[in-house]
Design brief:
This protein is an alpha/beta fold and 264 residues long. It contains 9 helices and 12 strands. The structure holds 2'-monophosphoadenosine-5'-diphosphate (ATR).
Length: 264
């Protein structure tokens, strides 16, 4: 029976096994998918198991998306630019790293019919997922991307990957059409982003990468003020679907059952 893994630390809360096992069963694929908490020192041996065929594919999450690159033979163009890998496949003899977070964000935005082209986007945060979001926004031809992060240096570092982005101080809220929360603030129910967003005119698009809780205080507030909102659930589902397709060459169906599965 084929084996797939998602590796990270922490990993307890990952919903990837639920989703992949559901789709594999539905498509009569004789395989199972597990989560595994690892340490830096475990990476090398684990990746070797993919090379040996003992593991058929790996999803990678925080904090290994960059670290894993050292052990791979090739990178997809998206993972090369973002220096971020969330899916590993063995193609012939080559261990290849892909970044399906890019597809996840792009497809989620298309799914809600928001036209990013020519829009001014403000990103809050500069952590692991932000390069993938910027790559997707560039692909979708956004007009301007501004990044604001509590630790400014981390935002400045993103300029090494994407020279056209602008950086603004944490606490300053410039004009925008779409704002993306890519910080971890909101994961806990009473978390509140330390920014005054009340002066923003209504009719903007507020996106949150967080999908659990479904509505962070940031999204609740934005909705109250008359803005469009969207959480990160679709991004999560689409990144998983893209990984599934890379491994099994089948595009899994995204229907009500998938949503119900994640609501459990
Ligand atoms: P990593 O930085 O390891 O990739 P992450 O969860 O992807 O981890 O990123 C966390 C993001 O949330 C960072 O941008 C972090 O800001 P710092 O770079 O200043 O740490 C941001 N973040 C976390 N707690 C925050 C808070 N209380 N206020 C504002 N930003 C916060």
């Amino acid at each position: 029976m084929k084996k797939f893994l998602v590796i990270g630390n922490p990993i307890e809360h990952s919903l990837s096994p639920k989703l992949h096992n559901f789709w594999m069963k539905k498509n009569n694929i004789n395989a199972f998918y597990e989560k595994k908490k690892i340490l830096d020192g475990d990476l090398k041996d684990l990746i070797k198991k993919v090379q040996m065929g003992e593991i058929s594919g790996i999803n990678v999450t925080v904090p290994f998306k960059k670290k894993v690159i050292d052990y791979l033979d090739k990178l997809s163009p998206g993972s090369e630019v973002t220096q971020s890998v969330n899916t590993i496949c063995l193609n012939g003899k080559n261990l290849v790293g892909y970044n399906t977070d890019i597809d996840g964000f792009e497809l989620a935005i298309k799914d809600v019919n928001y036209d990013v082209s020519n829009k001014k986007i403000l990103i809050l945060g500069a952590g692991g997922v932000v390069p993938s979001i910027i790559f997707a926004l560039n692909k979708l031809k956004s007009r301007q991307i501004i990044v604001s992060n509590r630790t400014k240096e981390k935002a400045e570092n993103l300029k090494n990957l994407f020279k056209d982005i602008e950086i603004t101080n944490w606490g300053d809220v410039p004009e925008f059409d779409m704002i993306i929360n890519a910080t971890s603030v909101g994961l806990k129910n009473n978390d509140k982003i330390d920014l005054d967003l009340s002066k923003i005119n209504k009719g903007k698009f507020f996106y949150d990468v967080i999908y659990n809780p479904k509505e962070t205080n940031y999204l609740k507030e934005a909705k109250k003020l008359g803005n469009e909102i969207e959480n990160g659930r679709k991004m999560f589902i689409y990144q998983a679907a893209a990984a599934f397709e890379l491994w099994h060459k089948i595009r899994p169906e995204i229907d009500e059952n998938v949503n119900a599965l994640l609501d459990d």
